[in-house]
Amino acid sequence: MATLIILGGGTAGTMAANMLRRRLDTSWSITVIDRDDHHHYQPGYLFIPFWMDPERVVKPRGAQIHDGIDVVHAEITGVRPEERAVDLADGRSLSYDWLVVATGAQPRPDLVPGMADGSLWRDRVHEFYSLEGAKALHDALESFEGGRLLVHISEMPIKCPVAPLEFAFLVEDHLRRRGIRHLVDITFVTPLDGAFTKPVAAATFGDLLEDRSIRIAPDFAVERIDNEAFTLNSYDGRALPFDLLVTVPPHTGARFLVGSELGDPMGWIPVDKHTLRAVADERVFVLGDASDIPTSKAGSVAHFATELFVENFLAAVEGKELPESFDGHANCFLESGRGKAMLLDFNYDTEPLTGRYPVPRVGPLSLLRNTRANHLGKLAFEQIYWNVLLPGYQMPVSATMSMAGKVPAGGK
After folding, report:
1. Strand 105-107 and strand 239-241: pairing?
2. Using CA atoms, how far apart are residues 281 and 191, in angstroms rounded to an integer?
3. What is the Cα–Cα distance from 272 to 315, expressed in whole angstroms?
4. Per-residue pLDDT tens digits for 263-295
Protein backbone atom coordinates (compact mmCIF):
# COMPACT_ATOMS: atom_id res chain seq x y z
CA MET A 1 0.00 0.00 0.00
CA ALA A 2 1.23 3.49 -0.87
CA THR A 3 1.27 5.96 2.01
CA LEU A 4 0.57 9.69 1.94
CA ILE A 5 1.09 11.67 5.13
CA ILE A 6 -0.24 15.22 5.43
CA LEU A 7 1.27 17.32 8.20
CA GLY A 8 -1.29 19.84 9.42
CA GLY A 9 -5.09 19.65 9.42
CA GLY A 10 -5.78 23.33 8.75
CA THR A 11 -7.32 24.77 5.60
CA ALA A 12 -4.87 23.43 3.03
CA GLY A 13 -4.23 20.09 4.78
CA THR A 14 -7.92 19.32 5.19
CA MET A 15 -8.75 20.34 1.61
CA ALA A 16 -5.90 18.27 0.19
CA ALA A 17 -6.84 15.18 2.20
CA ASN A 18 -10.51 15.34 1.23
CA MET A 19 -9.84 16.04 -2.45
CA LEU A 20 -7.21 13.32 -2.77
CA ARG A 21 -9.34 10.72 -0.96
CA ARG A 22 -11.86 11.04 -3.79
CA ARG A 23 -9.15 10.70 -6.45
CA LEU A 24 -6.85 7.99 -5.02
CA ASP A 25 -7.97 4.36 -4.95
CA THR A 26 -7.94 2.05 -1.92
CA SER A 27 -4.32 1.07 -2.53
CA TRP A 28 -3.46 4.43 -0.93
CA SER A 29 -3.60 5.27 2.74
CA ILE A 30 -3.92 8.93 3.72
CA THR A 31 -3.01 10.11 7.22
CA VAL A 32 -3.44 13.64 8.58
CA ILE A 33 -1.32 14.57 11.61
CA ASP A 34 -2.15 17.54 13.84
CA ARG A 35 -1.74 18.25 17.52
CA ASP A 36 -5.45 18.39 18.49
CA ASP A 37 -9.03 17.98 17.32
CA HIS A 38 -9.85 21.70 17.04
CA HIS A 39 -10.19 23.25 13.59
CA HIS A 40 -10.22 27.06 13.80
CA TYR A 41 -11.87 29.39 11.29
CA GLN A 42 -9.03 31.89 11.56
CA PRO A 43 -10.68 34.72 9.55
CA GLY A 44 -13.14 34.89 12.45
CA TYR A 45 -10.42 36.01 14.87
CA LEU A 46 -10.64 39.52 13.37
CA PHE A 47 -14.29 39.89 14.41
CA ILE A 48 -14.09 38.44 17.93
CA PRO A 49 -12.80 41.70 19.50
CA PHE A 50 -15.94 43.41 18.18
CA TRP A 51 -18.94 41.09 17.86
CA MET A 52 -18.33 37.45 16.93
CA ASP A 53 -18.96 34.66 19.47
CA PRO A 54 -15.60 32.85 19.98
CA GLU A 55 -17.34 29.46 20.03
CA ARG A 56 -18.41 30.06 16.44
CA VAL A 57 -14.87 29.80 15.03
CA VAL A 58 -13.98 26.33 16.38
CA LYS A 59 -15.32 22.96 15.23
CA PRO A 60 -14.03 19.39 15.66
CA ARG A 61 -11.19 18.75 13.22
CA GLY A 62 -12.19 15.14 12.73
CA ALA A 63 -15.67 16.15 11.56
CA GLN A 64 -14.13 18.09 8.65
CA ILE A 65 -12.11 15.10 7.38
CA HIS A 66 -13.78 12.47 5.20
CA ASP A 67 -14.12 8.77 5.91
CA GLY A 68 -11.17 6.71 4.71
CA ILE A 69 -8.61 9.18 6.05
CA ASP A 70 -6.69 8.38 9.22
CA VAL A 71 -6.20 11.16 11.77
CA VAL A 72 -3.34 11.18 14.29
CA HIS A 73 -3.34 13.68 17.15
CA ALA A 74 0.27 14.34 18.11
CA GLU A 75 2.94 17.01 18.11
CA ILE A 76 5.33 16.71 15.18
CA THR A 77 8.97 16.92 16.20
CA GLY A 78 10.77 16.31 12.93
CA VAL A 79 10.88 15.04 9.36
CA ARG A 80 13.67 12.84 8.03
CA PRO A 81 13.38 13.10 4.23
CA GLU A 82 16.11 10.54 3.49
CA GLU A 83 14.35 7.89 5.60
CA ARG A 84 10.89 9.21 4.55
CA ALA A 85 9.83 9.33 8.17
CA VAL A 86 7.95 11.71 10.45
CA ASP A 87 8.84 11.81 14.16
CA LEU A 88 6.20 12.51 16.80
CA ALA A 89 6.52 13.79 20.36
CA ASP A 90 5.05 10.57 21.78
CA GLY A 91 8.01 8.61 20.43
CA ARG A 92 6.39 7.18 17.33
CA SER A 93 7.85 7.46 13.84
CA LEU A 94 5.56 7.16 10.83
CA SER A 95 6.94 6.27 7.40
CA TYR A 96 5.59 7.65 4.14
CA ASP A 97 5.97 7.36 0.41
CA TRP A 98 4.82 10.94 -0.24
CA LEU A 99 4.57 13.87 2.15
CA VAL A 100 2.48 17.05 2.12
CA VAL A 101 3.49 19.75 4.58
CA ALA A 102 0.66 22.14 5.48
CA THR A 103 1.69 23.22 8.96
CA GLY A 104 1.09 26.92 8.38
CA ALA A 105 2.68 29.96 9.98
CA GLN A 106 3.04 30.57 13.69
CA PRO A 107 2.88 33.94 15.49
CA ARG A 108 5.96 34.24 17.72
CA PRO A 109 5.54 37.00 20.34
CA ASP A 110 8.57 35.53 22.09
CA LEU A 111 10.79 36.97 19.33
CA VAL A 112 10.26 40.62 20.35
CA PRO A 113 11.84 41.61 23.69
CA GLY A 114 9.17 42.90 26.06
CA MET A 115 6.27 41.39 24.14
CA ALA A 116 5.26 37.94 25.45
CA ASP A 117 7.68 38.25 28.38
CA GLY A 118 6.55 41.74 29.37
CA SER A 119 4.24 42.72 32.23
CA LEU A 120 1.85 44.45 29.78
CA TRP A 121 1.15 41.28 27.73
CA ARG A 122 -2.62 40.64 27.63
CA ASP A 123 -3.02 43.85 29.68
CA ARG A 124 -2.14 46.78 27.41
CA VAL A 125 -0.32 44.74 24.74
CA HIS A 126 -2.62 42.49 22.72
CA GLU A 127 -2.87 40.52 19.48
CA PHE A 128 -5.75 38.94 17.57
CA TYR A 129 -3.90 36.21 15.66
CA SER A 130 -4.90 33.55 18.19
CA LEU A 131 -8.25 32.65 19.73
CA GLU A 132 -6.95 33.40 23.22
CA GLY A 133 -5.56 36.74 22.07
CA ALA A 134 -8.73 37.79 20.24
CA LYS A 135 -10.85 37.04 23.33
CA ALA A 136 -8.51 39.03 25.60
CA LEU A 137 -8.53 41.94 23.14
CA HIS A 138 -12.35 41.96 23.20
CA ASP A 139 -12.25 42.49 26.95
CA ALA A 140 -9.58 45.18 26.65
CA LEU A 141 -11.63 47.14 24.11
CA GLU A 142 -14.69 46.92 26.36
CA SER A 143 -12.86 48.87 29.06
CA PHE A 144 -10.82 51.17 26.81
CA GLU A 145 -11.97 54.76 27.27
CA GLY A 146 -9.43 56.71 25.25
CA GLY A 147 -5.77 57.50 24.66
CA ARG A 148 -3.12 56.41 22.16
CA LEU A 149 -3.86 53.20 20.27
CA LEU A 150 -1.18 51.61 18.09
CA VAL A 151 -2.00 48.94 15.50
CA HIS A 152 1.34 47.35 14.75
CA ILE A 153 2.96 44.83 12.40
CA SER A 154 6.28 43.50 13.73
CA GLU A 155 7.68 42.23 10.44
CA MET A 156 6.72 40.48 7.22
CA PRO A 157 5.66 37.89 6.19
CA ILE A 158 2.56 37.36 8.31
CA LYS A 159 -0.67 35.45 7.86
CA CYS A 160 -3.38 37.48 6.11
CA PRO A 161 -1.36 40.71 5.63
CA VAL A 162 -4.54 42.79 5.19
CA ALA A 163 -5.84 41.83 8.65
CA PRO A 164 -3.93 44.55 10.59
CA LEU A 165 -5.38 47.19 8.26
CA GLU A 166 -8.82 45.67 8.68
CA PHE A 167 -8.43 45.86 12.44
CA ALA A 168 -7.41 49.55 12.23
CA PHE A 169 -10.53 50.38 10.21
CA LEU A 170 -12.83 48.23 12.35
CA VAL A 171 -11.57 49.61 15.66
CA GLU A 172 -11.95 53.17 14.31
CA ASP A 173 -15.57 52.36 13.45
CA HIS A 174 -16.08 50.62 16.81
CA LEU A 175 -14.83 53.66 18.72
CA ARG A 176 -16.95 55.98 16.57
CA ARG A 177 -20.08 53.99 17.37
CA ARG A 178 -19.18 54.07 21.05
CA GLY A 179 -18.97 57.87 20.82
CA ILE A 180 -15.33 58.05 21.96
CA ARG A 181 -13.50 58.25 18.62
CA HIS A 182 -12.49 61.87 19.36
CA LEU A 183 -10.73 60.64 22.52
CA VAL A 184 -8.49 58.16 20.71
CA ASP A 185 -5.38 58.77 18.58
CA ILE A 186 -4.90 55.77 16.26
CA THR A 187 -1.57 55.08 14.51
CA PHE A 188 -0.90 52.26 12.07
CA VAL A 189 2.73 51.18 12.59
CA THR A 190 4.30 49.10 9.85
CA PRO A 191 7.76 47.89 8.74
CA LEU A 192 6.71 48.65 5.14
CA ASP A 193 7.13 52.00 3.39
CA GLY A 194 3.37 52.22 2.91
CA ALA A 195 0.09 50.75 4.05
CA PHE A 196 0.46 47.44 2.13
CA THR A 197 2.90 45.29 0.23
CA LYS A 198 1.38 46.04 -3.21
CA PRO A 199 1.95 49.69 -4.30
CA VAL A 200 -1.47 50.15 -5.97
CA ALA A 201 -3.30 48.82 -2.92
CA ALA A 202 -0.99 50.76 -0.58
CA ALA A 203 -2.04 54.03 -2.21
CA THR A 204 -5.74 53.15 -1.95
CA PHE A 205 -5.47 52.05 1.67
CA GLY A 206 -3.30 55.06 2.54
CA ASP A 207 -6.03 57.39 1.31
CA LEU A 208 -8.61 55.52 3.39
CA LEU A 209 -6.41 55.74 6.50
CA GLU A 210 -6.14 59.49 5.95
CA ASP A 211 -9.92 59.81 5.49
CA ARG A 212 -10.42 58.07 8.86
CA SER A 213 -7.78 60.26 10.56
CA ILE A 214 -5.55 57.24 11.24
CA ARG A 215 -1.88 58.15 11.27
CA ILE A 216 0.70 55.89 9.64
CA ALA A 217 4.22 55.27 10.97
CA PRO A 218 6.12 53.53 8.11
CA ASP A 219 9.54 51.88 7.99
CA PHE A 220 9.27 50.94 11.69
CA ALA A 221 11.60 48.04 12.53
CA VAL A 222 10.61 47.06 16.06
CA GLU A 223 13.42 46.55 18.56
CA ARG A 224 11.45 46.05 21.80
CA ILE A 225 8.48 47.04 23.90
CA ASP A 226 9.36 49.13 26.93
CA ASN A 227 6.94 47.91 29.61
CA GLU A 228 7.97 50.65 32.05
CA ALA A 229 7.66 53.63 29.70
CA PHE A 230 4.67 52.18 27.72
CA THR A 231 6.48 52.69 24.41
CA LEU A 232 7.07 50.72 21.23
CA ASN A 233 10.71 51.19 20.28
CA SER A 234 12.42 50.88 16.89
CA TYR A 235 16.02 50.27 15.92
CA ASP A 236 16.29 53.78 14.48
CA GLY A 237 15.57 55.32 17.88
CA ARG A 238 11.86 56.09 17.64
CA ALA A 239 9.73 55.45 20.75
CA LEU A 240 5.95 55.53 20.16
CA PRO A 241 3.90 55.89 23.37
CA PHE A 242 0.72 53.84 23.75
CA ASP A 243 -2.18 53.23 26.09
CA LEU A 244 -3.26 50.19 24.07
CA LEU A 245 -0.98 48.32 21.66
CA VAL A 246 -2.50 45.82 19.22
CA THR A 247 0.42 44.04 17.61
CA VAL A 248 0.96 41.31 15.08
CA PRO A 249 3.96 39.31 16.32
CA PRO A 250 6.66 38.02 13.96
CA HIS A 251 5.79 34.77 12.21
CA THR A 252 7.86 31.67 11.51
CA GLY A 253 7.09 28.30 10.05
CA ALA A 254 6.43 25.34 12.35
CA ARG A 255 9.18 25.05 14.94
CA PHE A 256 10.23 21.56 13.88
CA LEU A 257 11.03 23.01 10.43
CA VAL A 258 13.28 25.84 11.63
CA GLY A 259 16.76 25.05 10.39
CA SER A 260 15.71 21.51 9.39
CA GLU A 261 16.59 19.59 6.24
CA LEU A 262 13.43 20.96 4.61
CA GLY A 263 13.10 24.43 6.15
CA ASP A 264 15.13 27.62 6.07
CA PRO A 265 16.29 29.44 9.25
CA MET A 266 12.77 30.90 9.69
CA GLY A 267 11.04 27.57 9.12
CA TRP A 268 9.68 28.34 5.64
CA ILE A 269 10.17 25.54 3.13
CA PRO A 270 11.77 26.56 -0.19
CA VAL A 271 9.64 25.29 -3.09
CA ASP A 272 9.20 25.70 -6.81
CA LYS A 273 6.67 28.55 -6.70
CA HIS A 274 4.65 27.13 -9.61
CA THR A 275 4.48 23.45 -8.62
CA LEU A 276 4.84 23.78 -4.80
CA ARG A 277 7.29 20.89 -4.83
CA ALA A 278 9.98 21.15 -2.15
CA VAL A 279 13.41 22.07 -3.46
CA ALA A 280 15.06 19.61 -1.07
CA ASP A 281 12.96 16.54 -1.94
CA GLU A 282 10.68 15.82 -4.91
CA ARG A 283 8.57 13.49 -2.74
CA VAL A 284 7.46 16.49 -0.66
CA PHE A 285 4.82 19.09 -1.60
CA VAL A 286 4.12 22.18 0.53
CA LEU A 287 0.72 23.87 0.79
CA GLY A 288 -0.63 26.95 2.52
CA ASP A 289 1.51 29.28 4.60
CA ALA A 290 4.35 26.80 5.18
CA SER A 291 6.24 27.53 1.95
CA ASP A 292 8.39 30.48 0.88
CA ILE A 293 6.35 31.42 -2.22
CA PRO A 294 6.35 35.21 -2.87
CA THR A 295 2.65 35.91 -2.42
CA SER A 296 0.31 36.57 0.51
CA LYS A 297 0.05 33.97 3.23
CA ALA A 298 -3.72 33.98 2.84
CA GLY A 299 -6.52 31.45 2.92
CA SER A 300 -7.36 32.17 -0.72
CA VAL A 301 -3.81 31.27 -1.74
CA ALA A 302 -4.08 27.98 0.16
CA HIS A 303 -7.40 27.29 -1.56
CA PHE A 304 -6.29 28.07 -5.13
CA ALA A 305 -2.91 26.35 -4.75
CA THR A 306 -4.45 23.20 -3.28
CA GLU A 307 -6.88 22.83 -6.18
CA LEU A 308 -3.98 22.90 -8.65
CA PHE A 309 -1.76 20.73 -6.43
CA VAL A 310 -4.14 17.76 -6.65
CA GLU A 311 -3.61 17.33 -10.39
CA ASN A 312 0.15 17.79 -9.98
CA PHE A 313 0.30 15.22 -7.18
CA LEU A 314 -1.59 12.63 -9.23
CA ALA A 315 0.83 13.18 -12.11
CA ALA A 316 3.89 13.06 -9.84
CA VAL A 317 3.04 9.66 -8.34
CA GLU A 318 2.75 8.28 -11.89
CA GLY A 319 6.10 9.79 -12.85
CA LYS A 320 4.52 12.21 -15.33
CA GLU A 321 5.25 15.87 -15.99
CA LEU A 322 3.29 18.15 -13.65
CA PRO A 323 0.41 19.69 -15.64
CA GLU A 324 -0.55 22.71 -13.50
CA SER A 325 1.33 25.94 -12.75
CA PHE A 326 0.28 28.08 -9.78
CA ASP A 327 0.51 31.83 -10.47
CA GLY A 328 0.37 33.08 -6.87
CA HIS A 329 -3.31 34.01 -7.18
CA ALA A 330 -4.59 35.79 -4.04
CA ASN A 331 -8.10 37.10 -3.49
CA CYS A 332 -8.49 39.04 -0.26
CA PHE A 333 -11.37 40.94 1.32
CA LEU A 334 -10.46 43.98 3.37
CA GLU A 335 -13.06 45.10 5.92
CA SER A 336 -13.09 48.90 6.07
CA GLY A 337 -15.75 49.49 8.70
CA ARG A 338 -19.14 51.18 8.32
CA GLY A 339 -20.53 47.96 6.82
CA LYS A 340 -18.29 48.01 3.74
CA ALA A 341 -15.24 46.19 2.43
CA MET A 342 -12.76 46.16 -0.45
CA LEU A 343 -11.63 43.18 -2.50
CA LEU A 344 -8.12 42.58 -3.89
CA ASP A 345 -7.24 40.20 -6.71
CA PHE A 346 -3.58 39.77 -7.69
CA ASN A 347 -0.83 37.23 -8.32
CA TYR A 348 2.96 36.94 -8.47
CA ASP A 349 3.25 39.34 -11.40
CA THR A 350 0.10 41.46 -11.46
CA GLU A 351 -0.82 44.32 -9.12
CA PRO A 352 -4.41 44.49 -7.82
CA LEU A 353 -6.73 45.64 -10.61
CA THR A 354 -10.13 47.29 -10.76
CA GLY A 355 -13.16 45.52 -12.22
CA ARG A 356 -15.84 43.09 -11.09
CA TYR A 357 -15.54 39.63 -9.53
CA PRO A 358 -16.13 36.74 -9.91
CA VAL A 359 -18.13 37.33 -13.12
CA PRO A 360 -16.32 39.87 -15.38
CA ARG A 361 -18.24 43.18 -15.76
CA VAL A 362 -21.12 41.76 -13.66
CA GLY A 363 -19.80 41.02 -10.21
CA PRO A 364 -21.55 41.23 -7.82
CA LEU A 365 -18.26 42.06 -6.05
CA SER A 366 -16.10 45.09 -6.95
CA LEU A 367 -12.31 45.09 -7.01
CA LEU A 368 -10.46 47.89 -5.21
CA ARG A 369 -13.75 49.59 -4.38
CA ASN A 370 -15.32 50.05 -0.97
CA THR A 371 -18.79 48.49 -1.19
CA ARG A 372 -21.54 46.92 0.88
CA ALA A 373 -21.61 43.87 -1.43
CA ASN A 374 -17.95 43.15 -0.67
CA HIS A 375 -18.70 43.25 3.06
CA LEU A 376 -21.58 40.83 2.65
CA GLY A 377 -19.32 38.63 0.53
CA LYS A 378 -16.78 38.45 3.35
CA LEU A 379 -19.46 37.49 5.86
CA ALA A 380 -20.86 34.85 3.48
CA PHE A 381 -17.40 33.31 3.13
CA GLU A 382 -17.71 31.75 6.58
CA GLN A 383 -20.39 29.33 5.35
CA ILE A 384 -18.52 28.71 2.10
CA TYR A 385 -15.43 27.84 4.14
CA TRP A 386 -17.10 25.17 6.28
CA ASN A 387 -19.44 23.73 3.64
CA VAL A 388 -17.57 24.02 0.33
CA LEU A 389 -13.85 24.63 0.78
CA LEU A 390 -12.97 22.27 3.61
CA PRO A 391 -14.95 19.32 2.19
CA GLY A 392 -12.91 19.83 -1.00
CA TYR A 393 -15.69 20.79 -3.39
CA GLN A 394 -14.77 22.78 -6.48
CA MET A 395 -15.78 26.44 -6.37
CA PRO A 396 -16.99 28.14 -9.59
CA VAL A 397 -14.01 30.50 -9.67
CA SER A 398 -10.67 30.11 -11.42
CA ALA A 399 -7.72 28.98 -9.32
CA THR A 400 -5.47 31.12 -11.50
CA MET A 401 -5.97 34.84 -11.94
CA SER A 402 -8.26 35.86 -14.80
CA MET A 403 -7.69 39.19 -16.56
CA ALA A 404 -11.16 39.27 -18.12
CA GLY A 405 -12.88 42.61 -17.57
CA LYS A 406 -10.13 44.00 -15.36
CA VAL A 407 -8.16 47.21 -15.83
CA PRO A 408 -5.35 48.85 -13.84
CA ALA A 409 -6.39 51.31 -11.14
CA GLY A 410 -7.00 54.68 -12.84
CA GLY A 411 -7.37 52.99 -16.24
CA LYS A 412 -10.46 52.67 -18.47
Report:
1. unpaired
2. 34
3. 16
4. 999 999 999 999 999 999 999 999 999 999 999
